[in-house]
Amino acid sequence: MPDESDVDEFARLFTRFLERMQAGGQRTTRESLRDRLREHLGVDPEQVPVVSSSFPPYDLPNVQRAIEAWFDSFEVLGLAGSNRGHHSLGELLELSEYDRFGIGAVDYQRLQIDVDEEMDCVAFGFYLGVQGEDRFVALLRAANPQYGRSSVDLEILAVEKAAGDRFLGALPGLIREHNVFRGKVVSFEGHEFGQGVGPFRLHPRPGITRADVVLPEGVLERIEREVVGIAAHRETLLAADQHLRRGVLLYGPPGTGKTHTIRYVLSQLPEFTVVLLAGTSIHFISQACALARMLQPALVVLEDCDLVAEARDYSHGSENPLLFQVLNEMDGLAQDADVAFLLTTNRADLLEPALMQRPGRVDMAVEVPLPDADGRGRLLRLYGPGLNLSPEVVDEVVQQTEGTTASFMKELVRRTVLLAAEAGETPSADHLRAAVAELLSSRDTLTRRLLGATGGKPHDNHTGPGAAPGTAPGTAPGTGAGSGAAAGSAAGPVPGLAGSGAEPGVAPPGAGAGFVAQPGPMPGVYKGLIG
Hints:
With 531 residues, the protein is of the alpha/beta class. It is built from 18 helices and 14 strands.
């Protein structure tokens, strides 16, 4: 049993504890959230109606800019206290009466708003603002999966509900006007928790000139007229009651330059907002179209649509709901929406049923074929300007590389330089022939496929150490200058379709002139796409 002195000591200490808690509570009350908001609004905030709205998670910087543009003056307050993210604005006000929450530091998120620019965004904070004769309190919260918030949430207190409604009504226009993504190249990604839109990436706009893309005569001009020309003559078309929305499909084997052609188009449209969707990210087509509508003129790029059409996970029976959703979104834009869609596919046959059932979504289909001999020659000169190759050597190599791609030619030049470096020599035609022999050897069959060339009978020349005297390092016996398979005397072509790898048919980003590709026949299905 404790003696009486122990009990008295406990009572004394407990009394001091209560006194300190009360004193601390009084200090907190003087700086409570509720009192501060009452001071700003002039009335008890719990008696003021709350209006609210939600926005996509990537729109946090735009919502913040819109709020700050609406107010004539404002200050931002933070909130101190645990588990605040679980409570609504009304609950926060109620709990602040019991000293649960007090004024604290504002929470910020540093978000990317351009390739090389970031912005400190309010992730949890109270705007105490004035607009004209009206006073507002706006609680802005970023999306936070930890608290079950998948969107940017805004809750507004205004003495008159009509003022709060007017504030919310002005936000869409202000978001459009002050949008940080206007004129940018962006892409959507899935959320790490598997729900909704995740990271919002910004990409540098390509800097590609017409000299970097050489396609069959008239092809690039047709694409430019459909995408750029319509935007340039927008008012004339609208006056004639013609729609602005358009769709262009680039089709052909993998690696033929479809993506690079699109990069060229992007570089020619610096004022366009571009939304990139590829593969499974096409799930976000609704969000992409909403952004494009807001920030038009805009371009929506849908790469590898065949992957969506081919994936059974997205289909039920003979139908593909995701692909049909894409086409429906394209058709759902207003007549005066200056939005262009650029689609690419390696398997046009997989898109045929959906496209035939939705005529008019795609206005023009363009084939991007494999490079011809002239194109391979130009690629060789493009990638190896320092090789000083004679026209005869270029023709010799071109004959041996039929059916290959730009990636093959690029690797061919790199190997040429590497072989010369290993030998301590200046790259020459002999090193080029040695590189050709390596890439066309039977042991490099898979390499050729990875570089975009399949099929054909490979050479059985084996390269590597022990090359015959007088040949370049890595050259098989009998493949010196003017002789052997690499010299073009006995080797056959390497035919085949394009596989994966760099873009053939056009030069890669940052390169010089590309090559001339031969136009192929237009499948009948694409002649009927416009209905």
